[in-house]
Amino acid sequence: MGKWDANKKLKRDSLLNTSLELFTSQGINQTSISDIVKKAGVAKGTFYLYFKDKYDIRNRLIARKSNQLFSSAYLALQKEHISSAEDKVIFMMKHILLELQEDSKLLALIYKDLSWGLFKEAVTNFSDDEDNDFLAIIETMFEDSPVKYKDHEVMMFLITEMVSSSGYSSIIYKQPMALEDLLPEMEMAVRGIMKSYEIH
C-alpha cells in the first residue's frame, strides 16, 4: 500500500471509528455529519469523498461490525472439533448472539441488521479491509462439508435474518423469552432450515 492509499485508509477509518463512537453514545438521529468531521479532525468535503451521507456510513459500519462478529465466531470455531456444517453454523450463531448480549452499544447500532445483504455490501465496498472475508469462509465451509446444500447463500440469508431479528428481540425485550431459553429453539429452527436445503 502506497503512502497516498495508506493516508486515504487512515482518514476513512478515522471517520468510521468516530461515527461508531458518536452513533453508539448519542444515537444516529442526534449525530450530524458536522459532529463526525469535527471529532475526526477532517474537512466536511473529506467525508463526502468516502460516504454519501450519515446513513451510508451507518450501513458500512453495520456491515464492517457484522463482518468482525462473523470473523470472531469463525476464529473461535477453529479451536473446536466440529465437523458438520450444520454444527458449525449453530456454534457461530450462538457465539455471535452471546457477544451481542455482552455489547449493548454494538447491538443498538446493528439493531436487527446483522444482514446477509449488508454483509455482501461490506465485502464489495471494503475489499481492502483486513477483516476476514466471511463470504469466502462460508464458501469453503460448504465446499468441505460432506453434506451438500442447494442455494447455500439463500439459506444463510434466511438463517442470518431470523437469528438477527429474534436475537435482538430476545436480548433487548426478553421476548418471546430470554436468550438462554430461546437459543435451543433457534438451534432447532436453524437445523430445520438447513435440513430443508440438503441435497440428497
Structure characterization notes:
With 200 residues, this protein is mostly helical. It folds into two domains: 1-51, Homeodomain-like (Arc Repressor Mutant, subunit A), CATH 1.10.10; 60-197. The protein has ten helices and no strands. The termini are far apart.
Topology:
Layout: H1 3-26, H2 33-40, H3 44-50, H4 54-78, H5 85-102, H6 104-110, H7 116-125, H8 134-143, H9 152-173, H10 179-197
Gyration radius, to the nearest Å?
18 Å
Strand residue content: under 5%
- Main structural class: mainly alpha
Can you count the beta strands? 0
Helix content: over 70%
Low-confidence runs = none
Indicate the overall shape: globular
How many separate helices? Answer: 10
Succession of helices and strands: HHHHHHHHHH
Distance between the termini: 47 Å
How would you characterize the largest beta sheet? Answer: none
The mean pLDDT is 87
Number of domains: 2
